[in-house]
Write a structure and sequence with these properties.
15 helices, binds (2S)-2-hydroxy-2-methyl-3-oxobutanoic acid, five-stranded mixed β-sheet, single chain, globular
């Protein structure tokens, strides 16, 4: 009997030692995104999952769950679920993590990037600079593993009622906003009537006319045919919306160093793709660079001229002049002051320095 037990123990020990590292890997890693796979955000997430699968020879299988399935529609709970391991990976908007990580409200400060000479350059300077690092550290301190910044796109305005060109035009409009207090403050300050709503409920609210307007990047609202209901689009670029490729820290630690490197590189490539999709064809700020990049990797931009695509869809497209943008920036300047301490004055200052360096 003793011999038998010893033999059995030996088999178990040897078996455990001989098990390949990959045996510890899950058969599927769940990746959370809010919108559909047809958006630039969704396409960026899928591109990431595909690259990881391909480059790991099928060993690391990430499945993208669109439409807030993993948060059962409660998109602002996403960080809690990443932290507790319900979600393994995410390509998530900083907006949805900002209720738990106040520093991430930096990107949603009104007209913080929009009034820079080149808003894309300014945003890249922040995500790639000292302030971006501070944002990533804030996330890590709260229990997430930061991988890389992606991009949902600058957020524009749509509504069913009238052309919005000046701050007065938005007064009294029922605006759907994401469940983040900063957005309520911005729209209240403008005299609008903000209504908090999950993105998963927003499309039916648009169809039923429960709300007059909403704000999202073109590459997020156009695929859902929002312009069938909202005939007025105002390109005001008021808020930047980078996403973060992130991982649950325990899941991250379970990967070998080589696989961590592989995942990082895939996130960098996916971020580049997603960012190009979100910028191509919007305006001269991008100067055709994003469309050229997409073609260089065998992809196509969704549109090379969004003014035309949106107009063809029946929308009145209003591109604000610098003076009109300034009127909105002045009207919302008090919001930046009110949020300075919550976000961190040092972080805001670091972002201003990052932007100034590329001006
Ligand atoms: O809810 C939104 O507006 C969306 C889809 O852009 C985010 O998840 C922040």
């Amino acid at each position: 009997m003793k011999k038998l037990l010893t033999a059995l123990a030996t088999v178990l020990v040897v078996g455990a030692l001989a098990a390949p590292v990959s045996a510890a890997y899950k058969s599927e890693y769940k990746l959370d995104i809010v919108p559909s796979l047809t958006t630039a955000w969704g396409q960026g997430a899928q591109y990431f999952a595909d690259l990881v699968k391909e480059r790991s020879g099928g060993k690391i299988n990430i499945k993208v769950y669109p439409n807030s399935q993993l948060t059962t529609g409660k998109q602002t709970n996403a960080f809690m679920l990443l932290r507790n391991g319900t979600i393994d990976f995410a390509n998530q908007s900083t907006i949805n993590y900002s209720p738990q990580i106040p520093e991430l409200n930096l990107f949603a400060l009104p007209f913080f990037f929009a009034n820079e000479p080149d808003r894309y350059k300014a945003l890249d300077a922040v995500t790639g600079g000292k302030s971006g690092k501070m944002g990533a550290e804030a996330l890590e301190k709260k229990g997430g593993k930061f991988i890389w910044f992606g991009e949902n796109g600058f957020r524009e305005l749509t509504n069913s009622k009238k052309e919005i060109r000046m701050p007065d035009d938005i007064k009294g409009l029922k605006m759907r906003v994401v469940g983040s207090p900063l957005f309520i403050d911005i729209f209240k300050t403008l005299g609008a009537n903000p209504i908090t709503m999950a993105w998963s409920d927003t499309m039916s609210a648009i169809q039923q006319g429960v709300i007059d307007g909403q704000e999202n990047p073109i590459l997020t609202f156009y695929p859902l045919k929002v312009t069938d209901y909202h005939k007025y689009v105002t390109n005001w670029h008021y808020v930047a919306d980078p996403t973060m490729f992130v991982c649950n820290p325990n899941v991250w630690k379970s990967f070998s160093a080589a696989d961590q490197e592989l995942i990082l590189k895939a996130a960098q490539d996916a971020a580049k793709f997603q960012t190009a999709l979100s910028r191509a064809g919007i305006d001269e700020n991008d100067g055709g660079k994003s469309a050229a990049y997409l073609k260089s990797i065998g992809k196509q931009p969704e549109s090379e001229d969004w003014n035309k695509t949106l107009t063809d869809a029946g929308a009145t497209v209003t591109n604000l002049t610098p003076a009109e943008m300034k009127a909105f920036a002045d009207a919302t300047a008090s919001v930046i002051d009110a949020w300075r301490d919550k976000i961190g004055a040092d972080l805001i200052k670091a972002a201003q320095e990052d932007m100034a360096a590329v001006r």
